[in-house]
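WARN retry 2 of 3 for item q-0093 after timeout on previous attempt; input resubmitted unchanged.
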Amino acid sequence: MIAFLLAAIPTYFTPGPNNLMLMTSAAKFGLQRTIPHGAGISIGFPLMVFVIGLGLGEVFTAVPALKTILKYVAAAYLLWMAWTLLGFKIGSVGGRQRPMRFYEGMLFQWVNPKAWAMATSFVALVIVPGEGRLASLLWLFLGCLLIAPFSTALWMIFGQQLEAVLRKTGTERYLGWILAILILSAVILFLL
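OK item q-0093 returned
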């Protein structure tokens, strides 16, 4: 569990698709409207870790093309998200713009490259072979379930505070560009 905590704390709290989306959503739609998205991540990722720990990770070892397909699906989604950020406006809820729903936050984990890297690393670090396998998987699931809300809350609060600064300075149009560039950089890094 010490190895898990040493790996989990930096990976949960560093920027990635989930955290950037939560920050953006909280800045754009407010903290309260972003809570379902954060809850979806907080529950969806531990469930993903559990399923991978049960053996789904072996499917990706047997069918490497599936990993490549998911990587490009995630890249396409993130590119679309970067494109939409270029029109970032605080409080703009017109049209189809809305925060992610609970189930969308859960499902996004399955195409999130950082989530896959984290989940497979955690499973490799924590799961013990043999009789203790299921017990170690349950401990890993509970560990992920306990850490996730702290990370999601931190990024949502950061987004809310960012929104307050942007309202005061009138610079929300620049945030969209900055976040779009960060997301494009993340896409380039994980596609390499």
